[in-house]
Design goal:
It contains six helices and three strands. It has about 110 residues and is an alpha+beta fold. Strands 1-3-2 form a three-stranded antiparallel beta sheet.
């Protein structure tokens, strides 16, 4: 189950479209570093899992807009808790990683 909601881009995509539906290129612009393919794959997966809807807009050229579903909105509270935890404990994780890396070098 976590594979469906906790990959590298899912949380960030949902944060972008949570306040208002967004078009593909708008999402891509707001997510610095995501490739076209990675975004397309992630949006398709989110749609498949019922977290995002995809609406074809009657524009010329045809546009597509993505919106978060009620099920996707239900993830907001756990994601916010996870972000708060990460902010609170990030320096501890960094220190632990540094200690581990130094121990590995010393053993080598």
């Amino acid at each position: 189950m976590l594979d469906k909601i906790a990959d590298k881009w899912t949380i960030l995509i949902l944060i972008v479209i949570c306040p208002k539906p967004s078009r593909f290129n708008e999402i891509k612009r707001r997510l610095d570093g995501i490739t076209h393919k990675a975004l397309a794959d992630a949006l398709k997966r989110l749609e498949r899992n019922g977290l995002v809807t995809r609406t074809v807009l009657p524009t010329s050229p045809v546009g597509v807009e993505y919106a978060i579903t009620p099920q996707g909105h239900a993830l907001r509270e756990p994601f916010e808790a996870l972000c708060a935890w990460a902010l609170e404990h990030g320096s501890e994780l960094d220190a632990a990683s540094t200690r581990f890396d130094q121990q590995q070098k010393a053993q080598a």
